[in-house]
Amino acid sequence: MEFITGVNRKETLEISELISGGWEGKTVTVNGAVHTIRDMGDVAFVVLRKREGLLQCVYEAGVTGFDLKTLKENAAVEVKGEVNREERAPGGIEIRLREIKVLTEPAAAMPIPISKWKLTSNLETILDLRPVSLRNIRERAKFKIQEGIIRGFRDFLYGEGFTEIHTPKIVSRGAEGGANIFKLDYFGKKAELAQSPQFYKQTMVGVYDRVYEAAPVFRAEKHNTKRHLNEYTSLDFEMGYIDGFEDVMAMEAGMLQYVMKLLETEYAKELKILNLTLPKTDRIPAVRFDEAKQKVSEKYNRPIRNPYDLEPEEEQLISRYFKEECDADFVFVTHYPSKKRPFYAMDDPADNTYTLSFDLLFRGIEITTGGQRIHDYDMLREKIKARGMSEEGMEHYLMIFKHGMPPHGGLGIGLERLTMKLVGEDNVRETTLFPRDLSRLEP
Fold first, then answer.
1. Other C-beta atoms within 10 Å of 254: how many?
2. pLDDT in tens, 160-199
3. In 257-396, where do the E strands start and end?
4. What is the dihedral of CA 355, 357, 361, 365, to 10 degrees?
5. What three-state secondary structure class fits 199?
6. C-alpha dist (Å) from residue 236 to 35, 164, 184
7. What are the tens digits of pLDDT across the range 210-267?
8. 309, exposed or middle or buried, with CB in 10 Å at 0-12, 13-18, 19+?
């Protein structure tokens, strides 16, 4: 009988360990995938692709005990050699190869040149070949940035006393209403894929006061635009005992500041690969919905066509306005009309045609929707009745208010949209690992 006592530490080294120093002139063992081979004759550069980036190895005829002609790109290998300082190499080091051991060989040549600095294939081809196109260095960098966003979101909120929760994605009733619902047959019962964790995260405010979740949500939207997905990752939090929806906006501003600092310090390599400049988060302007519409209408001579919602062009113009006027990359638009907000949104006591809610715009697109929720049981039932809605199927949701809830509010952030604008892409599919849209169910 054997016992497993913990992680098996390997003799093979990672790039960060080699760069940390003390290995120059020493023989080391490293594994990785052959990213590219540049054959110069008697000397060749074999560049390995590892989880932390690229590592340059030098093959020398008559020195390295291996026939270079048999080595294929994308083969998984283990190499042994001497560490040398070389400022022109990635990370400033290279390995003078002595041995190469092939662990696995590819069965076919790569269908696209992933070793190029930037993929030049069209987006549909890149997505069709997603399992291998993601191996491109720039593609990998985008999703490391996305990792940093989620990591910062979690770390910041945990530090602010929030509890992470995991809510069901198969539900009996959608939280947002409307027709964009994926319907399911759940063992003979009618069910839906969750549009939002809204009901559940409000429920958990009554348990933990402050909660957050990073999880998929589903929208059966039958349009194919650069900004919409049918499945995306929503970064949600909900907080109790607020004085107003401004507390929610302030918490998001603090979270964004934390995320940007984390990216700056721990994802500098990816920022450099993508040539990114991080947005400013120290002072985020907040403007009323009706005032924002009026400002862009006057400055850019654009008539107001929809008084109840922001059109995509208006979102772009509002962002442009506050960039020009305040040098702001983000802008909160507050007090959305009640007509366009869900039933649980708290109406403005000063004018109940508006709500105590907001969107956060970032470089021309809405990435966040949030606000204060109705916490009074009778008020919530009245709002449901006024909307012509039925309480059927909402018994468990209404239960939390019947038995007392604190003033609370929260938000949901579209992770892929935030990443898209942060890395400078203009299509949300570019920053979705495996997109699900109107026409794409694979890979």
1. 15
2. 999 999 999 999 887 666 668 999 999 999 999 999 999 9
3. 286-288, 330-334, 347-348, 351-355, 357-362, 365-372
4. -70
5. helix
6. 38, 10, 24
7. 999 999 999 998 888 999 999 999 999 999 999 999 999 999 999 999 999 999 999 9
8. middle
CA atoms of 144 and 138, how far apart (whole Å): 10
Place of tokens 């794409």: 440
- One-letter amino acid identity for 57? C
Burial of 59 (0-12, 13-18, 19+ CB in 10 A): buried
For 119, the token pair is 């993929």
Lookup result for tokens 């030049």: 120
pTM of the model: 0.95
Bridge pairing between strands 27-39 and 43-50: antiparallel
- Separation between Cα atoms, residue 238 and residue 203, nearest integer Å: 10
- What crossing angle do the helices spanning 198-208 and 395-402 adopt, rounded to 10°? 30
Do the beta carbons of residue 274 and residue 250 sit within 8 Å? Answer: no
Between CA 329 and CA 327 the distance in angstroms is 7
| Gap between the Cα atoms of 276 and 265, Å rounded | 13
Q: Where are the alpha helices (DSSP H) in 287-335?
A: 289-300, 312-326
Instruction: Identify whether the C-beta of residue 217 lies closer than 8 Å to the C-beta of residue 242.
Output: no
Q: Rounded to an integer, what distance in angstroms lies between the CA atom of residue 195 and that of residue 215?
A: 11
Residues in CB range of 277: below 8 A, 6 or more apart? none
Both tokens of residue 306? 């929809």
- Where is 85: in which H helix or E strand? strand 76-85
Beta strands in 375-417 (DSSP E): 408-414
